[in-house]
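User: New here, any thoughts?
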Amino acid sequence: MDERITAPVRLKVLLRERHWQTYRTFTAEYDKAAKKVDPSLEGAGPSRAQLHRWMSGDVKGLPYPDHCRVLEKMFPGWTAEQLFERVTDDHDTPPVGDDSAGATKAADLLETIDRQLHAPEGDVRWEPSEASSPSVSPALLHSVEGASDTARRLGRQLLELQRVLRLSDDEAAQLASLSGNIVELSMSADIDIDHEGWSRVTYRHQLLNLTDKPMTRLAREVWFENTRDRLVIGPVSDPDRHVMIQRRHDTANLSKFACQISPPLQPGDMATVGFVCEGGQFVYDHYWRNSIPRYTRQYTLRIRHQGAGQLLRCSATEEEPNGSESSAEDHLVWDYDGDDVNMTLTRDHLRPNQAITLRWDVQHESA
């Protein structure tokens, strides 16, 4: 009998590996992925009979395009065609066309992740790199011997991220070298200041957990020159995560708190966590300083100062961990919108213990 005819469908193998083979569990995971692809697809998964036909390989061609989109989201790195191929054993096999160079890179990727998880290096490479096409297939990770389950999981997530963000192999390798850390793929701060100086500050942190432990909270603090009673702080949640604000310490001008995350951010997971702060006022000292606690791939600061009129000065500086400063004005743009001033500062590949400061002066009313 033809071995390929009796061999299991790759979809069945992957479902069994993840313990998703029961209809109830599959439907829950399908809906999670569907919500990310297109919320309207949630609840529109296959029937029990359809799933049985998928897993047995009793289908002609491929399922409907929407089903294919969701399945490819559930199993990053696999195409719908590959998911419905038969495999010759109970392990994933690399797609046709993967070469020894890709296998070597897969082995290097997992070796780097395992090494960093157990003994993180103090200083790792973290810088822009030239674009290149991804050359490692997630399927190759299964053929690497000796790698831990955590390394394989983180490796799969990194390769999915590489394709979504169009990262080069070099930058994917840099992220792998940051294993053992929580990495901020992006951090944004949007500050809206009204005519009297009262502000609304919104922070969003896109976090990637490259550790082997769940992340449950994000510690933060904010300080203002002047405040209206106690600062009002509320959560900004990711579609898949809830955020609760835990106040830890409050003074007249300073608030220290934590964004508690539920469910926790598991190893390899990514989510956006944030908060909104109101009740702080800019009076005379117009500046915003942001300390960088983690490796941050992209930082964006946007400030809209209503009724500011003419800018007298606008400057930006970047502070290194050793305390030295350099100008960041090449990354600063500003413009007028009537009497309002809009300023945007962007920086990439920042390291822990750096700081970014934006300062601006406007005409103050005479006493």
